[in-house]
């Protein structure tokens, strides 16, 4: 359709490329928009002129010309020409020619909005009369890329995504794109950034270029960080939280709304057409994902801070120009205030038999005390689904993101790659963490643990990354909330642990598959080690058990191993050694292990989340300073519990009384990772690994244990 229109225009209004400084004309068409209420359409050219086009019956000698079927033939006629910028035809004409322009019709065709260049001005045109009725400034930032009118709102895509109410002349919201996007040339932006609206659903879709891998050192030095794929977000008019996000392995080439539904059709760089729409009859909000993938900075009338960024800015900027903290940490200094009226709204709703399920009431109460509402169970379902599907992708795809390829200990670990309690664990897994940029050469060595994640290809798992980024962010908030409850439970202020967290605290997560005894080649009566006996290092951990297969066991004070069977809709919370050290033993660390699934029972899956602690924390802070003085009556309660069982029998030694050769938690964590992942240690930290092996040898000698060092790779 578009090609035939342009060929019809060409004989009447030539569209040459400008070949000389004194050769004015329409030149290139910078933008085109169709009137949804009629056959009218409009173009904007690099001559800064908006033209409206309407069909006109073709006549010869005053008589309508018809085709062989008797239908009247029509030509496209230029109805109006509206000059946006007064331009002198000088030698500077070509240099001042804009690269970009955008047009948008209102739903009823009564308004035509036009923008040109990067002056932030949008002209409102009466398309029927052909003149400018108003010009509004400050409606976009940088160079205009695309523009649409949806209902009463003007949506612009430039260096930000802005939604402006034309009736009240108020900004609804604005999302500022990160610098790696805004620094692109306008021609690149026009090719890789796209905007489309769906009038039926009242939504709009935006495609933004993104990167699949971290920038190389040369790209960082030269500040050339080209995008490698596209992210898509679907927004409503009233909220800056996206209703849906998708990742595409190649760049998105075009977006259009679906004709009879509330979704969008996407054409990508692989010449494939994708349908992005509701999932069955579920609302779009159940598919919501984080906007960190889109490298957006949130801006409203009062700036609220930038969203999580995938590519860190490489240029040193003045302090006042630095991005604000991500919204995850935005309210960390504010203690949520919950009124009696709000609690009454949860509990005082009728007799006991009429109350909603306990799980629903828990989410309502926890949501009041949390800085952000807790996610519904749909997110948990998505996490489980995506986590299990990861192990079904081809081995070569998993190998591309293998942990041994990076010094961060993030990525995929094949079966038998990890060691716990001097024995090999029979598990396959992927390790993820909260996103961080690559460390600088001057950072401490343990900062290698802070790095971008290694994600599976979106071509195989398009939803994996956004689902797990959201889950990690949510679990980070829940873990901070839970530790505040622990503090209050032992008589301390709710913020007692806060100084042991970084502003951008790293938390970790694993997605784990445990093969059953049959798959491991063991006999039914044998006991396989999924994970050997151990204590988690930091404060708390939260294990999401998938399905109904047993395997997790915790050791009680008598030294007995107790099954922890899966319970749907719950996580198992374990106390780490950092918590035990900070509370002077009041909160004792949990010794636990995982047994391989029974013979022929199939694999077991689990998704543990590990709350992080500030890596620069020194061991004397843990053991001497702690989190404050715990009341004697609470300490006495712990002593009585220990006395009642005759003291604690524990298969795993508490190691946080001192750091040994490590002075900080970050250094100790790095050594523990090297000890567990020998292959990564051999490649990236051979000197530290050699020191660890010597230390293990000495420990065995002192304990008269048989010497069975980890095998050399």
From TrEMBL:
UniProt-recorded name of the protein: Fe2OG dioxygenase domain-containing protein
GO biological-process terms attached to the record: small molecule biosynthetic process
Keyword flag Iron: yes
Keyword Transferase listed: no
Organism domain of life: Eukaryota
Family: Belongs to the iron/ascorbate-dependent oxidoreductase family.
InterPro entries: DIOX_N (IPR026992), IPNS-like_FE2OG_OXY (IPR044861), IPNS-like_sf (IPR027443), Oxoglu/Fe-dep_dioxygenase_dom (IPR005123), Plant_2OG-oxidoreductases (IPR050295), WD40_repeat_dom_sf (IPR036322)
Domain Fe2OG dioxygenase intervals: 505-613
Keyword terms: Iron, Metal-binding
Native organism: Monilinia fructicola
Gene Ontology MF, one: metal ion binding
Region Disordered, annotated ranges: 315-336
């Amino acid at each position: 359709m578009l090609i035939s229109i342009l060929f019809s225009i060409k004989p009447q209004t030539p569209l040459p490329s400008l070949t000389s400084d004194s050769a004015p004309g329409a030149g290139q068409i910078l933008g085109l928009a169709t009137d949804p209420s009629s056959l009218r359409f409009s173009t904007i050219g690099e001559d800064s002129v908006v033209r409206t086009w309407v069909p006109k019956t073709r006549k010869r000698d005053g008589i309508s010309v018809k085709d062989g079927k008797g239908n009247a033939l029509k030509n496209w006629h230029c109805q109006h020409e509206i000059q946006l910028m007064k331009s002198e035809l000088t030698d500077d004409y070509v240099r001042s020619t804009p690269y970009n322009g955008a047009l948008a019709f209102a739903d009823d065709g009564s308004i035509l909005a036009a923008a040109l260049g990067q002056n932030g001005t949008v002209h409102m045109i009466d398309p029927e009369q052909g003149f400018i009725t108003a010009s509004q400034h400050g409606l976009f930032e940088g160079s205009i890329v695309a523009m649409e009118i949806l209902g009463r709102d003007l949506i612009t895509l430039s260096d930000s995504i802005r939604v402006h109410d034309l009736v009240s002349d108020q900004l609804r919201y604005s999302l500022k794109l990160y610098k790696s996007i805004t620094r692109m040339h306008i021609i690149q932006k026009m090719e890789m950034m796209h905007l489309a609206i769906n009038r039926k659903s009242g939504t709009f879709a935006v495609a933004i270029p993104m990167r699949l891998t971290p920038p190389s050192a040369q790209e960082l030095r030269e500040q050339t960080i080209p995008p490698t794929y596209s992210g898509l977000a679907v927004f409503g008019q009233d909220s800056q939280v996206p209703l849906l996000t998708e990742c595409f392995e190649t760049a998105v080439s075009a977006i259009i709304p679906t004709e009879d539904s509330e979704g969008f059709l996407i054409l990508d760089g692989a010449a494939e057409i994708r349908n992005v729409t509701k999932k069955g009859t579920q609302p779009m909000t159940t598919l919501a994902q984080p906007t960190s993938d889109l490298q957006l900075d949130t801006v409203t009338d009062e700036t609220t801070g930038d969203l999580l960024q995938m590519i860190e800015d490489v240029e040193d900027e003045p302090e006042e120009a630095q991005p604000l903290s991500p919204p995850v940490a935005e309210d960390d200094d504010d203690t949520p205030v919950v009124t009696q009226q709000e609690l009454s709204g949860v509990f005082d709703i009728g007799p006991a038999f009429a109350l909603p399920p306990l799980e629903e009431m828990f989410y309502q109460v926890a949501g009041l005390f949390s800085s952000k509402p807790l996610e519904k169970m749909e997110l948990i379902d998505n996490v489980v689904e995506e986590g299990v599907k990861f192990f079904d992708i081809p081995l070569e795809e998993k190998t591309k993101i293998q942990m041994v390829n990076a010094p961060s200990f993030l990525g995929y670990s094949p079966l038998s790659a990890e060691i716990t309690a001097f024995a090999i664990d029979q598990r396959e897994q992927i390790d993820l963490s909260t996103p961080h940029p690559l460390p600088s050469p001057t950072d401490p060595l343990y900062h290698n643990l802070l790095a971008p994640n290694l994600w599976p290809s979106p071509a195989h798992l398009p939803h994996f990354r956004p689902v797990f980024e959201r889950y990690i962010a949510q679990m980070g908030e829940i873990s901070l909330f839970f530790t505040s409850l622990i503090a209050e439970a032992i008589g301390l202020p709710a913020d007692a642990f806060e100084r042991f967290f970084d502003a951008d605290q790293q938390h970790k997560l694993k997605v784990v598959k445990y093969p059953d005894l049959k798959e491991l080649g063991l006999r039914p009566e044998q006991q396989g080690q999924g994970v050997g006996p151990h204590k988690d290092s930091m404060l708390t951990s939260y294990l999401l058990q998938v399905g109904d297969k047993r395997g997790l066991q915790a050791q009680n004070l008598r030294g007995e191993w107790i099954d922890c069977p899966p319970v749907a809709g719950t996580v198992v919370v374990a106390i780490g050694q950092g918590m035990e050290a900070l509370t002077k033993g009041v909160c004792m660390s949990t010794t636990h292990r995982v047994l391989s699934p029974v013979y022929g029972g199939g694999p077991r899956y689990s998704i543990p989340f590990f709350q992080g602690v500030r890596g620069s924390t020194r061991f004397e802070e843990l053991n001497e300073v702690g989190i404050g003085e715990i009341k004697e009556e609470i300490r006495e309660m712990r002593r009585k519990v220990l006395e009642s069982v005759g003291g604690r029998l524990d298969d795993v030694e508490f190691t946080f009384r001192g750091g040994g050769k490590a002075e900080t938690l970050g250094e100790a964590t790095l050594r523990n990772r090297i000890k567990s992942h020998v292959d990564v240690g051999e490649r990236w930290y051979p000197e530290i690994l050699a020191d660890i092996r010597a230390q293990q040898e000495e420990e065995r000698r002192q304990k008269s244990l048989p010497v069975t060092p980890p095998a050399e790779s």
